Amino acid sequence: MEAAPAGTVAGQGITQDELRLAARNHALPLEALRHPITPPGLHYLLIHYDIPDVDPATFRLEIGGAVERPVSLSLDDLRGRERIAEPITFECAGNGRALLEPRPLSQPWLTEAVGTAEWAGAALQPLLDEAGPSASAVEVVFTALDRGVEGDVPQWYERSLPIADAAGGLLAYEMNGGPLPPQHGFPLRLVVPGWYGMTNVKWLTRITVVEEPFTGFQNAVGYRMYSPDGVPGEPVTRMAPRSLMAPPGVPEFFTRERRLEPGPVTLTGRAWSGHGPIELVEVSTDDGASFAPAQLDEPLGPHAWRGWRFAWDAPAGEHVLSSRATDAAGNTQPLDVPWNLKGYSNNAVERIPVRVANEADLS
Ligand SMILES: Nc1nc2c(c(=O)[nH]1)N[C@H]1C(S)=C(S)[C@@H](COP(=O)(O)O)O[C@H]1N2
Ligand SMILES: [Mo]
Description:
With 363 residues, this protein is mainly beta. It folds into 2 domains: 8-235, Sulfite Oxidase, Chain A, domain 2; 242-361, Immunoglobulin-like, CATH 2.60.40. 8% of the residues lie in helices and 36% in strands. The chain is built from 5 helices and 24 strands. The chain has helices at 16-24, 75-79, 124-131, 163-166, 217-220; strands at 8-9, 61-65, 71-73, 84-91, 103-104, 114-123, 139-150, 153-162, 170-175, 178-179, 189-191, 204-210, 224-226, 232-235, 242-245, 250-251, 258-260, 263-272, 278-284, 292-293, 295-296, 306-314, 317-327, 352-356. The strands form 6 sheets. A 6-stranded mixed beta sheet has the order 16-17-24-23-19-20, with no helix packed on it. A 5-stranded mixed beta sheet has the order 3-2-12-7-8. Strands 4, 6, 9, 10 and 11 form a 5-stranded antiparallel beta sheet that branches. β13 (224-226) and β14 form a beta hairpin. The termini are far apart. The site of the ligand Nc1nc2c(c(=O)[nH]1)N[C@H]1C(S)=C(S)[C@@H](COP(=O)(O)O)O[C@H]1N2 has 19 residues, from β7. Molybdenum atom binds next to loops.
């Protein structure tokens, strides 16, 4: 057998380093897929370093770099701008990582690193326009207040966006109608609809317009599609389509295998994509051998997941349930994805084992 590439591990057992990350950063409990807006505390969480303690009274957002007029704003200045509010779905780029074999060593997500909040704040573009980017500006760098070391490089968490993609950005100071919780970026974060979660820089304090592509760690080294020999390839950008089912019935405590009674049941779930609206969700009750279309709910908004439902007459026996999303650009979830070294963008179709039996009252 060939050795697993550096930074990966073969086999099932997770390491204590992975467990430590998993204990800090939590996923969406899948039953919370029943809510269109994820209730407070149930939204997934991913924090590379420590949660910084930010004093809102002295906090400032600075906009500078290759601009005509640098701008400095307090939180009250930002709240004085037009308030834009929108339900927006986030998903971590590493969602699905722990299902790859060998497993890339990092936060060991299964399928549920996702959530939808109503984010509110000031639109980014008018503030950039006020600063006046130079004619040769290519990207905008977003710098945060959390600091750590990654790949031996000390750094503030920071990421750049091509200047054209910054146009859709929101500078959010509210989540679900209240101030941002500390773990979600208090007092200010960037939100870029459609992009994977790493783009939504929390504890944002500085915006720098640059005339050369940014070469910081999170763009050049992190968040790239790597080959097994460790060569960074394409950057990770928008969310690939994915659908998840709210698991039916009740769980067995330790394995979380689902148990339900035979008979009619309505399967429900939510689907999203960063490449356009969801146009089709299909459900399989035979481990992906065949799929049938689900009924789609009314859209929640252009940048939020779409609910769906599917009537199933559950026969006694063991089954594997799946749902599969297709977006308006024609992208469909695959049953298997090509492996990559950092475990990004694994949108392979979910597999939910269920045992349907009359053995106990499960209704
Ligand atoms: N400053 C800062 N911003 C950050 C991160 C971070 O560690 N530091 N993590 C990113 C990643 S990888 C993800 S997936 C999202 C998670 O956002 P949430 O915890 O609010 O769901 O925040 C992004 N923004
Ligand atoms: Mo992430």
